Structures are given as structure tokens and as C-alpha cells.
Amino acid sequence: QVQLQESGPGLVKPSETLSLTCTVSGGSISTYSWSWIRQPPGKGLEWIGYIYYSGETNYNPSLKSRVTISIDTSKKQFSLQLSSVTAADTAVYYCARGRTYFPHWGQGTLVTVSS
Amino acid sequence: EIVLTQSPGTLSLSPGERATLSCRASQSVSSNYLAWYQQKPGQAPRLLISGASSRATGISDRFSGSGSGTDFTLTISRLEPEDFAVYYCQQSGDSPWTFGQGTKVEIK
Fold first, then answer.
1. Burial bucket for residue A6 (CB in 10 Å: 0-12, 13-18, 19+)
2. How many contacts, defined by CB atoms under 8 Å, are there between A and B?
3. In the predicted model, what is the mean pLDDT of residues B24-45?
4. What is the mean pLDDT of residues A11-40?
5. What mean pLDDT comes out for the span A85-109?
6. CB-based contact B45 A101, cutoff 8 Å
7. pLDDT tens profile B62-89
């Protein structure tokens, strides 16, 4: 059974770059797409973007100017970078397997943007 | 972008009752790229339905999805205690993928 685990700082200062990594275990990282989704505290879900194992990406236009998703198949990891963060970027960030729908999710990691 | 509007916001029901959740899209969702998720407090969402009506692996047949175009429905035939949660619909027919705001199913 595939498992995903997010890792990265839980606190980021305003205007800095949020960086998270998702490690995949129990299955191949190749032949699938991998996504990031976030959820502000007490609110709904927002799709951030996905990356195919080949490197092809698709980002939410609302975040596109600030987002980079990358993949390292040798390490079975994919990563999220979100630049110039503000308090509005405070959320639980989930990594997930899938492109159009998401059958496998990480447990999520809370990232707070605060000085 | 496609806006998904879920109704009602909260559904108060008793165990054993039938739950009917609605998801309406601002424009047609192509190829039925419509999914439903269940989320419990402190947990990641769990995929229930994809392609509008196909149950995900391991999902009870108490859950069923239907609909097409702009109107979709998730039905829980007989509520079990573990079904009380928040439910989200999600479309991926047109980028950006979007989620509904959620329907909370609470114990009456």
C-alpha cells in the first residue's frame, strides 16, 4: 500500500519561501502524477498543482506565479516551493497521488506563516 | 474556473437515515470528472467516488454517486456512526481543479 509523508518547516516568515517534501513509500513514484493540496484552518480544500513523473506540471493559476513543484524519482520524493508567503498561506498542506482525483493522501502538515 | 456549490451546508440526521448531498457546478463538468471525499477532524480526506459514480477501493456500497453535467449527488443509504463527517465534491474536468465548500453531516 502506497504511503506518503510530508516534511518541512512548520513555521515560515512572511515574504519567505515555503518548502515541503513528500516522500513516497510502498509503491513506485514512476508512471503516476503527484499533487499538492492545501486547507486553511477551518476552511475548505484548494488544489495547488501536480507533477507527472516525467516532470510535466500543471499549477493553479491563482498560485502559479509563486509555485514550483519538482520531483526526484531516485529519492522517491516530490517537493513544493511557494514563494513570497503571507498569512493567507497558513494551511495544512497535503501531498497526494493522482492527477484528476486523489486516492492516496499524506497525513498533512500544518505550515504557519508568522514573524 | 468552475465553481462547485454544495448543499446543504449542514445535514442533521440520525444513524440509519438516508443522506442526500448535492454538488452543483457553475458549468458542465466534462467526462464526469467529478469526485467525492469524506474528511473527519484531524484527518486527510478519503476518496469515496470518482467519475461521478465509481466507488473507490474499499468503500462501502452504502455510498453511491450519481449525476452528470452540472448536477451531482452523493447518497449514503443508511448512516452509520462513522459516516458523520464533512463531505467535499471536486472537479477535474477543467483546470484549475476545484473543490466544493463542503457539507457537514452531523448527528441529530
1. buried
2. 51
3. 94
4. 96
5. 97
6. no
7. 999 999 999 999 999 999 999 999 999 9
- Enumerate residues 6+ apart whose C-beta is below 8 A from A27: A1, A2
CB contact under 8 A, A100 and B46: no
Using DSSP's 3-state secondary structure scheme, residue A27 falls into coil
Alpha-carbon span B48 to B38, nearest angstrom: 7
Among the partner residues A44, A60, A106, nearest to B88 by beta-carbon distance: A44
Length of chain B: 108
Residue B8, classed as helix, strand or coil, is coil
Q: In this prediction, what percent of chain B has a pLDDT beyond 70?
A: 99
Whether residue B31 is predicted with pLDDT greater than 90 in this model: the reply is no
Please, which residues have CB within 8 angstroms of residue B53's CB and are 6 or more apart in sequence? B32, B64, B65, B66, B67
In the block, residue with C-alpha cell 513544493 = A80
The residues near B41 (Cβ < 8 Å, ≥ 6 apart) are none
- Which chain B residues are Cβ-neighbours of A102 within 8 angstroms? 35, 37, 45, 47
Q: Which residues of B touch A60 (CB under 8 A)?
A: 96-97
- Average pLDDT of the residues in B20-29: 97
Measured between CB atoms, does B90 come within 8 Å of chain A?
yes
From the list B36, B22, B28, B29, the residue with the least C-alpha distance to B72 is B22
Position of cell 519561501?
Answer: A17
